[in-house]
User: Fold dihydropyrimidinase from Gossypium darwinii.
Amino acid sequence: MAISQIISLFLLHLLLPLASTSLSQSSHQLICEVGTGNGGSIGGTSPLPASLSKLLIKGGTVVNAHRQERADVYVEDGIIVAVKPNIKVGDEVTVLDATGRYVMPGGIDPHTHLDAEFMGTVAVDDFFSGQAAALAGGTTMHIDFVHPVNGSLMSGFEAYEKKASKSCMDYGFHMVIRHWDESVSKEMEIMVKEKGINSFKFFMAYKGTFMVDDAVLLRGMKRCKSLGALAMVHAENGDAVFEGQKRMIERGITGPEGHALSRPPMLEAEATGRAIRLASFVNTPLYVVHVMSIDAMEEIAKARKTGQKVIGEPVVSGLVLDDSKLWDPDFITAAKYVMSPPIRESGHNKALQAALSTGVLQLVGTDHCTFNSSQKAFGIDDFRKIPNGVNGIEERMHLVWDTMVESGQISVTDFVRITSTECARIFNIYPRKGAILVGSDADIIIFNPNSSFEINPRSHHSRTNTNVYEGRKGKGKVEVTISRGRIVWKDDELKVAPGSGKYIPMPPFGFLFDGIEKIDAKLVSSFKAPVPRFKSDV
Assistant:
């Protein structure tokens, strides 16, 4: 055989796995486009109904965060118009039998990154595929993070409006702040008063890209307070993480395990505590995203015990996984678990579950930011180049139920609270979202606690070819998902169309801002200053 032929075969051997991955992703994308471009479906062949103007859910147990009751739910034109027993309807109404099932508000995921540009690549799930996956898992709304474009918040918002034009369920936006000047301060006001954004995120990590220093964080918190917007932080000490990464590389630790070793829990705790103290100094509420460690959780617990308004958000990966897979000898297996802050060693997950069950932590997100195996391979020789992110938008509701309710750690009403209602309350869209009440949007799931699920990347609806929860089985399954009155998931069939989702504006000054002025006044009155002094000749 000629040398050129040997080289060609060698290159083909190397490229085949990537080609296979690319083909798999393209095929899935094709299914999405063919199945929705003309009102079809993903994973099925039935057409998407234009609308369901009248719908009755009969015989189920309706669960809200405050109570559960046997009742029927009647929906007209996407709005809940009655919740009571034995509702009678005519033949023109579509009837769903929920006997033996729970009827609950659709989930709200407070933390996602769809179509996100990050670490030199773009997340594979966009606003269609990611939302389709969410609906299949019982989540009917999410809140995504808008990044500025060329320093402009407005340009970033407009860019994300375009990204979200293909959405198939309701969504809202947080806004990321990456630098500070007067234009940013002015645009924050426009975002709040005109664009429906009531939360701003500050990264304390990712030095050289997203990270802001304490001066920016302080100015941002003050501006958030004046606008009635919630300050959010990704809490890791970015300078120390940068140093930790250098240490690992110098020691020849270049694989995915170096990611976890370079950013230990103490660095998450330090940044969490620092953000909490700065928020206390400003006297503004604080939301800590993806709490991944006992150390960070304890900082939140300590602050909340003093009465400080701090929200702690664990994500499903931190609740149910540990870091053991980061040491897997197969790079692709290990790399799919890389996210920041890292998934922690066993024990942290159980402690976070306990904190969630006792109210130290308040709601569950996912940080859904998916990359396929070929993208993760960018860092095969240097863990610093592995795109950070895991899946979870489709799996969250099932995993939280199985982990928290089936184990007896929380009640059914608590499940609704941590997966839906609390998010709606924090971001000031309750009871439009997060409730099954008269006047609420008809975002509803029918949940069978006696059914079971199994997670498999070959059957999930995300475009990624991996899944960090692969092989997990459990009890409890979403059998029906209803989005604004439309049945979008039933009989394991997804019926969605791009452009059918709506942007949900979120007004400022939610309940977390109640009493802020009184605390300010009490602080000022405690100063006993300024002290009147007489000037004397020297």
Q: What stands out?
A: The longest strand covers residues 444-454. The CA atoms of residues 127 and 168 lie 8 Å apart. Residues 1-50 have pLDDT under 50 and may be disordered. The domain at 106-439+452-474 is CATH 3.20.20.140 (TIM Barrel).
